[in-house]
Amino acid sequence: MNKNLPAAIAMVRELLAGGGDVASTIGHALDGAGLLVDPERTFGTVLRRTPQGWAPVAPATQHVEAEPELTQSTELEQQATDWDAACERARQLADSARTTYRSEPDFVGVRTDGDTVVISLQITELSRWAGWMATLGIVEHQLVTALDYVVCGRTTIGDVPVSVLAYGVPELQLVAQATARRPYRHAGLIYDLAVGHKDLTGDTWYFHGDYSAEGMPLLSKDGRPERCTLAAVVDLLGPILPVREPVAAAQGGEHG
Hints:
Number of strands: 14
Strand content: 25-35%
Distance between the termini: 60 Å
Strand order of the largest sheet: 3-4-7-6-5
Largest sheet: 5 strands, mixed
Order of helices and strands: HHEEHEEHEEEHEEEEEEHE
Number of helices: 6
Structural class: alpha+beta
Shape: elongated
Helix content: 25-40%
Protein backbone atom coordinates (compact mmCIF):
# COMPACT_ATOMS: atom_id res chain seq x y z
CA MET A 1 0.00 0.00 0.00
CA ASN A 2 1.13 3.52 -0.78
CA LYS A 3 2.32 4.97 2.53
CA ASN A 4 0.85 8.33 1.52
CA LEU A 5 -2.66 6.92 1.28
CA PRO A 6 -3.76 7.29 4.94
CA ALA A 7 -2.61 10.92 5.03
CA ALA A 8 -4.30 11.63 1.70
CA ILE A 9 -7.61 10.11 2.86
CA ALA A 10 -7.53 12.14 6.07
CA MET A 11 -6.88 15.34 4.14
CA VAL A 12 -9.68 14.61 1.62
CA ARG A 13 -12.18 14.00 4.43
CA GLU A 14 -11.24 17.29 6.06
CA LEU A 15 -11.49 19.29 2.82
CA LEU A 16 -14.80 17.77 1.67
CA ALA A 17 -16.56 19.88 4.28
CA GLY A 18 -15.36 23.08 2.63
CA GLY A 19 -17.07 25.14 -0.04
CA GLY A 20 -16.12 26.36 -3.51
CA ASP A 21 -14.23 24.18 -5.97
CA VAL A 22 -13.68 21.28 -3.61
CA ALA A 23 -11.90 19.08 -6.19
CA SER A 24 -9.39 21.80 -7.03
CA THR A 25 -8.85 22.60 -3.36
CA ILE A 26 -8.20 18.95 -2.56
CA GLY A 27 -5.84 18.53 -5.51
CA HIS A 28 -3.72 21.56 -4.60
CA ALA A 29 -3.70 20.61 -0.94
CA LEU A 30 -2.47 17.10 -1.69
CA ASP A 31 0.22 18.42 -4.02
CA GLY A 32 1.36 21.01 -1.49
CA ALA A 33 1.63 18.33 1.18
CA GLY A 34 3.87 16.23 -1.08
CA LEU A 35 1.28 13.46 -1.35
CA LEU A 36 1.10 13.48 -5.14
CA VAL A 37 3.81 12.15 -7.45
CA ASP A 38 5.04 14.29 -10.35
CA PRO A 39 6.23 11.72 -12.93
CA GLU A 40 8.65 14.23 -14.46
CA ARG A 41 10.32 14.97 -11.11
CA THR A 42 10.29 11.52 -9.49
CA PHE A 43 13.94 10.79 -10.21
CA GLY A 44 15.22 14.32 -9.75
CA THR A 45 17.33 16.26 -12.21
CA VAL A 46 19.58 14.15 -14.44
CA LEU A 47 22.70 15.68 -16.01
CA ARG A 48 24.54 14.66 -19.17
CA ARG A 49 27.87 15.73 -20.58
CA THR A 50 27.90 18.07 -23.54
CA PRO A 51 30.80 19.72 -25.41
CA GLN A 52 30.02 22.84 -23.39
CA GLY A 53 29.93 21.01 -20.04
CA TRP A 54 27.17 19.49 -17.89
CA ALA A 55 23.53 20.13 -18.85
CA PRO A 56 20.20 18.81 -17.49
CA VAL A 57 18.40 16.16 -19.51
CA ALA A 58 15.19 17.61 -20.95
CA PRO A 59 12.00 15.82 -19.80
CA ALA A 60 9.90 13.93 -22.32
CA THR A 61 7.16 16.57 -22.04
CA GLN A 62 8.50 20.08 -22.43
CA HIS A 63 7.31 22.61 -19.93
CA VAL A 64 8.54 25.86 -18.43
CA GLU A 65 10.51 25.34 -15.24
CA ALA A 66 9.78 27.53 -12.26
CA GLU A 67 12.59 29.83 -11.15
CA PRO A 68 13.55 27.71 -8.07
CA GLU A 69 14.00 24.65 -10.31
CA LEU A 70 16.26 26.62 -12.67
CA THR A 71 18.37 27.65 -9.69
CA GLN A 72 18.51 24.03 -8.48
CA SER A 73 19.67 22.83 -11.89
CA THR A 74 22.37 25.49 -11.99
CA GLU A 75 23.63 24.46 -8.55
CA LEU A 76 23.64 20.81 -9.58
CA GLU A 77 25.57 21.61 -12.74
CA GLN A 78 28.10 23.55 -10.65
CA GLN A 79 28.48 20.59 -8.29
CA ALA A 80 29.15 18.29 -11.25
CA THR A 81 31.70 20.76 -12.66
CA ASP A 82 33.41 21.05 -9.27
CA TRP A 83 33.56 17.25 -9.03
CA ASP A 84 35.21 17.03 -12.45
CA ALA A 85 37.77 19.63 -11.38
CA ALA A 86 38.50 17.76 -8.13
CA CYS A 87 39.00 14.51 -10.05
CA GLU A 88 41.36 16.25 -12.45
CA ARG A 89 43.42 17.63 -9.56
CA ALA A 90 43.63 14.11 -8.15
CA ARG A 91 44.84 12.77 -11.52
CA GLN A 92 47.51 15.46 -11.71
CA LEU A 93 48.69 14.73 -8.17
CA ALA A 94 48.80 10.98 -8.91
CA ASP A 95 50.97 11.63 -11.97
CA SER A 96 53.28 13.82 -9.91
CA ALA A 97 53.52 11.26 -7.09
CA ARG A 98 54.27 8.49 -9.59
CA THR A 99 57.17 10.49 -11.00
CA THR A 100 58.44 11.59 -7.59
CA TYR A 101 58.30 8.27 -5.75
CA ARG A 102 58.77 5.61 -8.44
CA SER A 103 62.43 5.10 -7.48
CA GLU A 104 61.67 4.60 -3.78
CA PRO A 105 62.08 0.94 -2.74
CA ASP A 106 58.81 0.96 -0.77
CA PHE A 107 56.70 2.45 -3.55
CA VAL A 108 54.26 -0.01 -5.13
CA GLY A 109 51.96 2.28 -7.09
CA VAL A 110 49.49 5.14 -7.11
CA ARG A 111 45.98 5.47 -8.49
CA THR A 112 42.97 7.72 -8.23
CA ASP A 113 39.62 6.89 -6.67
CA GLY A 114 37.36 9.72 -7.78
CA ASP A 115 38.76 12.87 -6.19
CA THR A 116 41.14 10.90 -3.91
CA VAL A 117 44.68 9.71 -4.54
CA VAL A 118 45.63 6.25 -3.22
CA ILE A 119 49.33 5.49 -2.70
CA SER A 120 50.39 1.89 -2.02
CA LEU A 121 53.63 1.05 -0.17
CA GLN A 122 55.32 -2.20 0.87
CA ILE A 123 57.16 -1.39 4.08
CA THR A 124 60.06 -3.59 5.22
CA GLU A 125 61.50 -1.28 7.92
CA LEU A 126 59.56 0.79 10.44
CA SER A 127 62.07 3.59 10.02
CA ARG A 128 61.02 3.81 6.36
CA TRP A 129 57.37 4.10 7.40
CA ALA A 130 58.37 6.88 9.80
CA GLY A 131 60.00 8.67 6.87
CA TRP A 132 56.89 8.31 4.71
CA MET A 133 54.69 9.65 7.51
CA ALA A 134 56.93 12.70 7.84
CA THR A 135 57.12 13.23 4.07
CA LEU A 136 53.38 12.95 3.46
CA GLY A 137 52.30 14.72 6.66
CA ILE A 138 50.50 11.75 8.26
CA VAL A 139 49.89 12.02 12.00
CA GLU A 140 48.74 9.41 14.51
CA HIS A 141 45.04 10.30 14.59
CA GLN A 142 44.95 9.86 10.79
CA LEU A 143 46.04 6.21 11.00
CA VAL A 144 43.47 3.46 10.57
CA THR A 145 44.30 -0.22 11.04
CA ALA A 146 41.41 -2.33 9.78
CA LEU A 147 43.42 -5.41 8.75
CA ASP A 148 46.36 -7.25 10.25
CA TYR A 149 48.61 -6.64 7.23
CA VAL A 150 48.00 -3.00 6.26
CA VAL A 151 47.80 0.43 7.85
CA CYS A 152 45.90 3.23 6.13
CA GLY A 153 47.20 6.75 6.64
CA ARG A 154 45.06 9.68 5.59
CA THR A 155 46.32 13.12 4.71
CA THR A 156 45.77 16.00 2.31
CA ILE A 157 48.23 17.31 -0.25
CA GLY A 158 47.20 20.73 -1.50
CA ASP A 159 43.43 20.31 -1.48
CA VAL A 160 43.48 16.68 -2.65
CA PRO A 161 42.64 13.93 -0.11
CA VAL A 162 45.24 11.16 -0.05
CA SER A 163 45.01 7.63 1.36
CA VAL A 164 48.28 5.78 1.93
CA LEU A 165 48.11 1.98 2.17
CA ALA A 166 51.20 0.74 4.02
CA TYR A 167 51.44 -3.04 3.71
CA GLY A 168 53.59 -4.92 6.19
CA VAL A 169 53.54 -2.31 8.94
CA PRO A 170 51.42 -4.30 11.45
CA GLU A 171 53.76 -7.30 11.25
CA LEU A 172 56.81 -5.06 11.70
CA GLN A 173 55.18 -3.43 14.71
CA LEU A 174 54.66 -6.82 16.34
CA VAL A 175 58.32 -7.73 15.76
CA ALA A 176 59.50 -4.37 17.08
CA GLN A 177 57.29 -4.74 20.15
CA ALA A 178 58.72 -8.20 20.86
CA THR A 179 62.37 -7.32 20.33
CA ALA A 180 62.53 -3.87 21.97
CA ARG A 181 63.99 -3.87 25.46
CA ARG A 182 61.90 -0.88 26.51
CA PRO A 183 59.14 -0.44 23.88
CA TYR A 184 57.01 2.68 23.60
CA ARG A 185 54.36 3.22 20.94
CA HIS A 186 53.90 6.69 19.49
CA ALA A 187 52.17 7.81 16.28
CA GLY A 188 51.81 4.25 15.07
CA LEU A 189 55.49 3.37 15.56
CA ILE A 190 57.41 1.41 18.21
CA TYR A 191 60.40 3.16 19.79
CA ASP A 192 62.91 1.28 21.94
CA LEU A 193 63.68 3.65 24.79
CA ALA A 194 66.63 1.47 25.77
CA VAL A 195 68.66 2.86 22.86
CA GLY A 196 69.40 6.34 21.60
CA HIS A 197 67.64 7.80 18.57
CA LYS A 198 69.37 9.97 15.97
CA ASP A 199 67.43 12.88 14.44
CA LEU A 200 67.71 14.39 10.97
CA THR A 201 70.46 16.79 12.06
CA GLY A 202 72.67 13.97 13.34
CA ASP A 203 72.11 14.58 17.07
CA THR A 204 71.30 11.59 19.27
CA TRP A 205 68.52 11.70 21.87
CA TYR A 206 68.43 9.51 24.98
CA PHE A 207 65.74 8.48 27.43
CA HIS A 208 66.74 8.29 31.11
CA GLY A 209 63.48 7.16 32.69
CA ASP A 210 61.50 10.39 33.05
CA TYR A 211 58.05 11.15 31.63
CA SER A 212 55.99 14.28 31.14
CA ALA A 213 52.79 14.82 33.12
CA GLU A 214 50.90 13.30 30.17
CA GLY A 215 53.06 10.15 30.22
CA MET A 216 55.22 11.03 27.22
CA PRO A 217 58.92 9.98 27.48
CA LEU A 218 61.36 12.87 27.97
CA LEU A 219 64.56 12.76 25.93
CA SER A 220 67.84 14.64 26.30
CA LYS A 221 70.24 15.38 23.46
CA ASP A 222 73.72 13.89 23.81
CA GLY A 223 73.44 13.83 27.57
CA ARG A 224 72.57 17.52 28.00
CA PRO A 225 70.29 18.44 30.91
CA GLU A 226 67.59 20.02 28.70
CA ARG A 227 64.78 17.57 28.03
CA CYS A 228 62.18 17.38 25.28
CA THR A 229 59.25 15.04 24.76
CA LEU A 230 59.56 12.20 22.30
CA ALA A 231 56.58 13.60 20.39
CA ALA A 232 58.24 17.00 19.97
CA VAL A 233 61.50 15.48 18.79
CA VAL A 234 59.66 13.34 16.25
CA ASP A 235 57.52 16.24 15.01
CA LEU A 236 60.34 18.80 14.75
CA LEU A 237 63.39 16.67 13.91
CA GLY A 238 61.99 13.34 12.76
CA PRO A 239 61.98 10.75 11.66
CA ILE A 240 64.35 9.63 14.37
CA LEU A 241 66.22 6.36 13.95
CA PRO A 242 67.56 4.02 16.66
CA VAL A 243 71.29 3.72 17.23
CA ARG A 244 73.00 0.52 18.32
CA GLU A 245 74.44 1.58 21.64
CA PRO A 246 72.01 0.85 24.51
CA VAL A 247 71.70 3.40 27.29
CA ALA A 248 71.14 2.75 30.97
CA ALA A 249 67.58 3.89 31.71
CA ALA A 250 66.52 4.81 35.22
CA GLN A 251 64.44 2.21 37.00
CA GLY A 252 60.70 2.77 37.16
CA GLY A 253 57.36 1.80 35.65
CA GLU A 254 57.31 1.51 31.90
CA HIS A 255 54.75 3.09 29.61
CA GLY A 256 53.69 1.77 26.27
